[in-house]
Write a structure and sequence with these properties.
binds S-adenosylmethionine; 451 residues; 7-stranded mixed β-sheet; globular; alpha/beta; methyltransferase activity; 10% strand; Methyltranfer_dom
Length: 451
């Protein structure tokens, strides 16, 4: 096995080592920010510096880093922490040799029903999938978790590729068929199009016999060479696709973009040892042999989009602080087992008072007398919580990097030399923008992809 496995492993090791002392930060429950005194857990130099900053200064530093991390050069302790987070995130030059670069394409408005985000995704991804099909000599695409079928429709109508879209929900399959019919009418290509696009409703697992479904739905008389794709396949569905790619000889290429890292099941998570046959993390032997676990909150953080938050200069939702203040009261009243969900409508409150008034209806408790007291008692934590929030968020791209490198390394460990990560979308337009690409063909990447 070539050196690519070792390069990927070495970079994953660096990310893992950087993350280790900050895992507690990523896994902090913001609800317990005050009651667990999280502020005091920050490294001394960062805490001292953050104490001296105003909230506006903290936001300005955080946003300026997130908007242009490559040119962020503050050499303070906080600046250095942000710079380190960037250096260990996929966008930094450290990962250039693991990333396959390809120009993004011009966007074409395909259907009025598609959002700007979806249009951006489909315009770019269909080009990449067509290139991968070409490189791997695939004669059909299986779009796992195909949803409403936008990707399949554009691959069929614009690239004339045979597509089977598989989704676990029958109403999605039905919707995809209807969407395709509308699109073909617009494209006036219904005859040739409809025979190229098939749909199946199935819950895909690592044990699914995809070839059987392909043979059943597409023509069974030809030897299928499948390109397996999936756009924003949530949780464990990405690792499922990777496992199917490795297992099935007829799947010759892979292009999968995950999302919802919070839904990934972890082998060494809280439920270890669990009865789950297939978990989604870790995949690589490198992390597996270390019994590596990330934690649910860390995976939740990885779902956040620094690109978007900093581009839009988004501030922390104030209800996070009000919830942490409520926790002070709940802990006092109910003791350590005060895990209470107060309902989503409370997050739309407009002030501390409004929040507690909403909460008291929900909890059926008279909190009137407590509100002023709690406000006074917890006020001093407000600015600290915002600063803590910014520092914690900076870890999001590092955790995402760790999850993606684990997937990439697994492919290398299993003998797929031509496996890469490719940035396929603009991170502001579509936050989950990295695809895992794998091709079973021999040859250099520039030969395969004509780069
Ligand atoms: C986030 S949506 C993405 C839909 C589509 N790819 C897109 O980007 O527009 C994920 C889709 O995967 C489907 N799904 C989830 N788990 C699945 C499984 N195990 N097998 C097949 N489909 C699944 C869901 O029903 C849903 O349509």
């Amino acid at each position: 096995m070539g050196g690519r496995k070792f390069v990927t492993q070495e970079k994953l090791r660096q990310v893992k080592e950087f993350l280790e002392p900050f895992k507690y930060l990523a896994n902090a429950h913001m609800t317990s920010f005050i009651t667990d005194n999280y502020w005091e857990t920050l490294p001394e130099d960062i805490k001292t510096e953050a104490t001296a900053l105003t909230v506006d200064d903290m936001y300005a530093t955080f946003w300026s880093w997130g908007r242009d991390p490559a040119n962020f050069n503050q050499s303070t302790a906080i600046g250095e922490f942000f710079r380190d987070c960037w250096a260990l995130s996929l966008g930094s030059e450290l990962f250039d040799d693991l990333l396959l670069s390809h120009d993004t394409c011009n966007e074409t408005l395909q259907t009025k029903r598609m959002s700007v985000k979806k249009n951006h995704e489909i315009s770019n991804l269909k080009e990449k999938v067509a290139i991968i099909c070409n490189a791997s000599k695939s004669n059909c695409v299986v779009d796992v978790g195909g949803g409403k079928g936008y990707l399949g429709t554009s691959l069929v109508l614009e690239k004339q590729i045979h597509v089977l879209s598989v989704d676990s929900k029958s109403h999605n399959t039905k919707g995809a068929v209807e969407m395709f019919e509308r699109a073909t009418k617009q494209a006036e290509a219904s005859r040739s199009g409809s025979s190229l696009y098939k749909h199946a409703t199935a819950f895909v697992t690592p044990e699914t016999n995809l070839l059987e479904i392909v043979n059943d739905k597409l023509c069974s008389k030809i030897d299928h060479k499948i390109c397996l794709t999936g756009l924003h396949v949530c949780g464990d569905l990405t690792s499922t696709c990777i496992k199917l790619f490795l297992k099935c000889h007829e799947i010759v290429s892979l292009c999968t973009i995950g999302c919802c890292y919070n839904l990934i099941t972890e082998t060494y998570g809280l439920n270890f040892p669990s009865d789950e046959k297939h978990t989604g993390f870790p995949l690589s032997n490198f992390l597996f042999k270390d019994c590596y676990a990330l934690g649910r909150n860390a995976r939740m953080i990885a779902c956040q989009s620094i690109d978007r938050i900093c581009h839009e200069r988004k501030e922390m939702n104030p209800s996070l602080f009000w919830r942490a203040a409520l926790q002070v009261h709940l802990l006092r009243q109910l003791g350590p087992n005060c895990e209470i969900s107060v309902g989503r409508h409370c997050s739309k409150a407009t002030s501390f008072l409004d929040y507690f008034q909403k909460v008291q209806q929900y909890l059926d408790q008279d909190l009137e007398e407590k509100i002023q007291e709690l406000d006074f008692e917890t006020r001093g934590n407000h600015d600290r919580m915002i600063k803590f929030y910014c520092l914690r968020l900076a870890l999001a791209p590092v955790i995402e990097t760790l999850i993606l490198l684990d997937r990439l390394l697994y492919l290398h460990e299993e003998g797929i030399e031509n496996a890469y990560i490719m940035k396929v979308f603009d991170g502001v337009k579509s936050p989950r923008c990295y695809a895992i690409i794998g091709v079973k063909m021999e040859g250099t990447i520039s030969q395969l992809f004509q780069l």
